[in-house]
């Protein structure tokens, strides 16, 4: 059961106090160990949300108590954790794609220079995103979005994906993201066509 109330009493030396619920119920015991954020001490008068539970003696106590600021910090921390997981996933899938290209090239399913081309364009795309973000922060000349999209279309999208996640650049703008995914799909379509019609290409490419 959840509750909400103001911290009406607090003994900082002993690390406990009481919360007076906003609904008028009896004060609820709060120990410092029951605070969700133990990096700071609660202050008398602040509004806390908590989970209501009973101890072994049947007395009501607050658990996982947190203030509005604590909730915001927790949401921010969860957001950072999710972003970190996305970054790891993006890096992993980009690397897996390049490894698959290397395997396809080794098996002569694709021209031998294909993985080198994608790797080079990915590095160029990543650097372009980094330079564009720095230019935006310093209010200097920017790299055009059409250039970034062209790099993705030509095969630099693995590096662009990694840059969007790690550098947090061009990762929110909806219009840009839509065009970017179109460029990515067009590139994959071209790659499939290259594989499908590989026998029509000069043997020198293999």
UniProtKB/TrEMBL annotation:
The chain crosses the membrane at residues 90-109, 115-132, 175-197. Keywords: Membrane, Phosphoprotein, Transmembrane, Transmembrane helix. Residues 2-67 form the CSD domain. This is DUF1294 domain-containing protein. It comes from Shewanella electrica. Signal peptide: none annotated. PROSITE patterns: CSD_2. SUPFAM superfamilies: Nucleic acid-binding proteins.
């Amino acid at each position: 059961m959840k509750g909400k109330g103001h911290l009406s009493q607090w003994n900082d030396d002993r690390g406990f106090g009481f919360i007076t619920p906003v609904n008028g119920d009896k004060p609820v015991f709060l120990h410092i160990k029951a605070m969700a954020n133990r990096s700071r001490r609660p202050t008398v008068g602040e509004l806390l949300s908590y989970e209501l539970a009973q101890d072994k003696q049947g007395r009501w106590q607050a658990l996982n108590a947190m203030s509005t600021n604590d909730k915001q910090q927790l949401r921010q921390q969860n957001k950072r954790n999710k972003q970190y997981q996305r970054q790891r996933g993006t890096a992993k899938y980009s690397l897996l794609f390049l490894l698959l290209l290397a395997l396809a090239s080794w098996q002569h399913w694709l021209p031998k220079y294909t993985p080198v081309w994608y790797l080079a364009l990915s590095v160029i795309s990543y650097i372009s995103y980094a330079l564009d973000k720095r230019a935006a922060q310093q209010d200097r000349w920017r790299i055009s979005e059409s250039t970034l999209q062209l790099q993705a279309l030509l095969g630099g999208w693995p590096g662009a994906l990694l840059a969007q996640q790690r550098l947090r650049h061009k990762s929110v703008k909806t219009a840009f993201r839509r065009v970017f995914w179109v460029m990515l799909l067009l590139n994959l379509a071209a790659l499939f066509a290259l594989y499908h019609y590989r026998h029509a290409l000069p043997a020198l490419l293999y």
